[in-house]
Design brief:
The chain is α+β, with helices and mostly antiparallel strands. The protein contains 4 helices and 12 strands. The strands form 3 sheets. The chain has a 7-stranded antiparallel sheet with strand order 3-2-6-9-10-5-4, sandwiched between helices. Strand 11 and strand 12 form a beta hairpin. The radius of gyration is 17 Å and the shape is globular. It starts with 7 loop residues before the first helix and ends in an 8-residue tail after the last strand.
């Protein structure tokens, strides 16, 4: 039996070594338009296409996502660091959406026009675990772009990953 308990700060420090994609998750519905920056997004299954999104229950917009029952996951490209910072800040929802160009797909949740890919989803289940809610989301529409570099988060800093041009050596 393991006797020592892992402290939250030790867990967060260890998790900083896990490279994650940076996403802006948005919603729109009867409670308005809202969004936040998230790294905790994961594929669940392709049949039916399902994602999970984790959100802190103390976030200002948490109740709005639950009420609207829709969300879009916008996977950010390398050029989107300012958008990530805006959606992670204390800016109002209205001010956040002034960053970037937005459109809609099936659910009406805002989709970033030049995101690497956007997944438009209906929230089907919500599971509370500790301080967070896990949204199980059925993907109802997908939009791709021509971007080829992704914004990622590693060791508490942004980095870029993507296609490297091939150079022919004569």
């Amino acid at each position: 039996m393991i006797k020592d308990r892992i402290e939250a700060t030790d867990f967060r420090n260890a998790m900083s070594s896990l490279t994650t994609a940076v996403n802006v998750v948005t919603t729109k519905g009867t409670s308005g338009v809202h969004g936040f920056t998230a790294s905790a997004v994961c594929s669940v299954t392709d049949t039916p296409p399902t994602l999970l999104v984790c959100m802190n229950q103390s976030a200002r917009s948490h109740a709005h996502f639950i009420e609207n029952k829709t969300l879009s996951v916008n996977v950010l490209g390398a050029q989107h660091e300012p958008i990530s910072n805006a959606f992670a800040s204390k800016l109002s929802s209205e001010e956040r959406f002034k960053h970037g160009s937005w459109t809609e797909l099936a659910t009406g949740a805002p989709v970033l026009e030049d995101a690497l890919v956007s997944f438009d989803c209906e929230i089907e289940q919500i599971q509370e675990v500790g301080t967070h809610s896990i949204f199980m989301c059925r993907v109802v529409a997908i939009k791709h772009s021509q971007q080829d570099e992704s914004l990622v988060y590693f060791n508490r800093a942004y980095s870029r990953v993507g296609q490297v041009a091939q150079i022919e050596i004569a």
